[in-house]
Design brief:
With about 270 residues, the chain is α/β, with parallel strands linked by helices. The protein has helices at about 20-35, 45-55, 70-85, 110-140, 160-180, 195-205, 210-220, 230-240, and strands at about 15, 35-40, 60-65, 90-95, 140-145, 185-190, 250-255. Strand 2, helix 2 and strand 3 (about 60-65) form a beta-alpha-beta unit. Helix 3 (about 70-85) runs parallel beside helix 4 (about 110-140). It is globular, with a radius of gyration of 18 Å. The structure holds NADP nicotinamide-adenine-dinucleotide phosphate.
């Protein structure tokens, strides 16, 4: 008979990249509430400390590791720090991502390409590689990559981001294929619009009227007609991180309020 405790993350050691705010923070809180020891990493130590303090306030355990995840030496630092503290890594969530500028395919420059690809793609690949080597030695683990609906259908003026997220989906499939025999399950979560700093930065530079117009346009494509909350991603992450997903690998959970279903609603 199915055992509900397979959803528990009790005593598992997790790394959540980009865990200082938004979707990563919601996943970190969810993991800690499910019993995991959570290492949160991103660039700004102050934001990480605030997240860790919140986790500790509800009785969880958190480790803060400031790092720029677009750089190989910083990735090594994160893995070494977690291993020095806990001696194992059961769960990795590659959530940190950036979409720093709106630009046409006609003038997206090399700097934008490198900024996005170094974090969203190179960082995910090499973080997965470093952690998978640990997981293989310890007999298994879970890797969850946060892609985007933009990795399925390109969004105008964020081509480099969309390309990077399509690549994240293939990182999942490549690692899942090779590592299934090592009891390492690798899966993707692909969010649609979720209310975070990244999402809200789309509207910030617009007049209130223009922002409302764009939100209304988005709403017309969304069967649920609302932007999601970071907490609405955490449950799927807990499932994919837990023993409940032991036969789930190389697949994708799309959490988009029906956006991909509703692409034609606005027509
Ligand atoms: N929000 C959405 O609508 C949406 C939709 C689809 C997919 N996603 C994906 O979901 C993930 C999380 O996005 P979010 O909306 O929660 O974004 P967010 O609120 O902007 O949070 C991004 C996180 O990544 C960290 N980060 C950024 N650059 C970094 C770097 N170079 N090194 C290490 N950490 C870095 C940030 O902290 P620091 O700035 O301190 O480094 C922060 O913790 C991203 O992969 C994003 O592409 C989001």
């Amino acid at each position: 008979m199915f055992d509900l405790s397979t959803f528990s993350l009790k005593d598992k050691v997790a790394i959540v990249t980009g865990g200082s705010r938004g979707i990563g923070q919601a996943i970190a809180y969810g993991f800690a509430k499910a019993g995991a020891k959570v290492a949160v990493t991103s660039r700004k130590a102050q934001d990480l400390e605030a997240t860790a303090a919140e986790i500790k306030a509800f009785g969880g355990e958190a480790l803060v590791i400031p790092a720029h995840l677009g750089k190989a030496e910083e990735i090594k630092k994160v893995v070494d720090t977690v291993m020095a503290k806990y001696g194992r890594i059961d769960i990795l969530v590659n959530n940190a991502g950036a979409s720093p500028a709106i630009a046409s395919v006609l003038d997206s420059d090399e700097r934008l390409w490198d900024t996005i690809m170094n974090l969203n793609l190179k960082g995910v690949y090499f973080m997965s590689q470093a952690v998978a080597n640990v997981m293989k030695k310890q007999g298994g683990g879970k890797i969850i990559n946060v892609a985007s609906v933009d990795g399925f259908n390109p969004e105008p003026f964020v081509s480099v981001y969309s390309i990077s997220k399509a690549g994240v989906r293939m990182i999942t499939r490549s690692f899942a294929m090779e590592l299934a025999k090592d009891n390492i399950q690798v899966n993707t979560i692909a969010p649609g619009p979720i209310s975070t700093k990244m999402m809200n930065s789309h509207w910030e530079h617009l007049s209130p009227e223009e922002a409302k117009k764009q939100k209304d346009e988005l709403c017309k494509m969304l069967p649920t007609c609302r932007i999601g909350e970071p907490d609405e991603i955490a449950g799927a992450a807990i499932y994919l991180a837990s023993n409940a997903s032991s036969y789930t690998t190389g697949t994708e959970i799309i959490i988009d309020g029906g956006l991909l279903l509703g692409m034609h609603l606005s027509a």
